[in-house]
Design goal:
10 helices, Purple Acid Phosphatase, chain A, domain 2, single chain, four-stranded mixed beta sheet, binds manganese (II) ion, about 30% helix, alpha/beta, six-stranded mixed beta sheet, globular, 17 strands, about 300 residues
Amino acid sequence: MHYDIIGDIHGHAEELRQLLNKLDYQRSGHGYRHAERQAVFVGDFIDRGPANAEAVQIARATVEDGNGHAVMGNHEFNAIAFHTQRPDCREFFRCHTEKNQRQHQATLDQLSSIELREATKWFKTLPVAIELDGIRVVHAAWQPTDIQTIETALDKLGRFTVDFLTFACQQDSPLFRAIENVVKGPEIELPEGKSFVDKDGHERFNTRVRWYANPAELTLQSYSIGAGDVLPDEPVSPRSSAGIASYPASERPVFFGHYWLQGPPMPFAPNVACVDYSVAKQGKLCAYQWNAGDTVLNPAQYVWVDALN
Ligand SMILES: [Mn+2]
C-alpha cells in the first residue's frame, strides 16, 4: 500500500479538504477515499481551528471506512482526560484550569455535547503508535519501550478507562512518563538559570528535543526543537537525555507531527520526517506522499496547502 501521512489538523477542516483534493482523494460518505492509497493521520484533530467537528468527522469516517489510519495526539489524550471524572472526587483527570480550558475552548464551543461524547469515544479507540507495511507512525516520538508500556496498560486496564487514566495521570508514574514521551515528545531540563518563552507565551525550563538523533553528536541548541536560538552551544548532559531512544538509520521510515515546524517541509533525516507545519499558526497543512518500498525520504514528496487565515 502507498500512504499519505497527514499532519496535525487542529480544526482546520477546509484546509484538510483542500489537501485531500490535491492528493487526488474523492469524497466518500463523510470521509475521503483513494483507489490506490490510504491516508494516515498523525493525530491532533482538534483544538484551536474554526471547524473542529468537521475535522473529526472527516478523519473518523476515512478511518472507519477502511480508507485510512490514525494515531492519537496529545490533544485527543488531553480531551479524554478533560472529560473523564476522577472516581474519588469531583475533579476531572485533566483539571479544568483556565489554561487547560483555553487550550480546548474551540472544541468546546464548536461541538455539541453529543458530538463531543462521540468524538471522545472515537479518540479512545485510537492507537498511540502504528506500524504499517514499511512505515511507522506516532504523534510525537517513536519510543519503543514507552509504546510497549502504554500498550500493555491499555490491554490490562482497558482503553483509556478510569483505571488506565488513574495511572496515566499520576505524575511521574511509568505510564505517565511513557505517554509524555510518545504523545507529547521527550523533553530535557535546561541548565540552571536558562529558560525561554514558547509559542503560547509560557516561560519554559525544559525543551523538546530531536529524540531521533544521538545527543552526543549535538549541542543543547541543535538537539532542541522549538526553543528558538536562545540555548547555549554546549554539550547535552548525558544525564538529561538518558532514557530517550534515538532512531537508528537502518530502521524503516518513521513519521510524526506535533512539532509546529515552519519553513519549507524537509525530512529531519533520511528515515525520519515530521509532517506538522503549523496550519493553526498561519503555516501549512502538510502531507508526505510515501510510496511502497521507499526507504529514503525525499523533500519532493511533501504536498501542502497554506492555512486560510
Ligand atoms: Mn501535538
